[in-house]
Amino acid sequence: MKKAKDDMRAEYKRSDFTNLERGRFHKEALKGTSVALLDPAIAKAFPTSEAVNEALLGLLTLAQQTAHVAARPKRPARKRATA
């Protein structure tokens, strides 16, 4: 099987890819961090990783507090006195 000499689409230019970096998030991945792709609207609302982390930590704290409240045992229903 012959390999094409240049199989890149015509609308792409090699000069567009000169600044790419291989393994850009390799160091972060080794630290145990995660990379997530955000929708454009969310990325606009949370422009930095610190803003995203702060919002998610707040949501996690709220979820934990809510789970604690919801996990309380319910009191048995009171019996009504019949007249």
TL;DR?
With 83 residues, the chain is mainly alpha-helical.
Beta content? under 5%
Secondary-structure element series: HHH
Largest sheet: none
Structure annotation, total helices: 3
Helical content band: 40-55%
Radius of gyration: 27 Å
Number of extended strands: 0
Using the alpha-carbon principal axes, give the shape. Answer: elongated
Question: Helix/strand/pairing class, anyone?
Answer: mainly alpha
CA(first)-CA(last) distance? 94 Å
How are the SSEs ordered, and which strands pair?
Blueprint: H1 26-31, H2 40-45, H3 49-70
Outline the structure in words.
With 83 residues, the chain is mostly helical. The chain has a domain at 47-72. Helix content is 41%, strand content 0%. It is built from three helices and no strands. It is elongated, with a radius of gyration of 27 Å. The model has no long low-confidence stretch (mean pLDDT 79).
Question: Which key features would you list for this structure?
Answer:
single chain, mainly alpha, about 80 residues, 3 helices
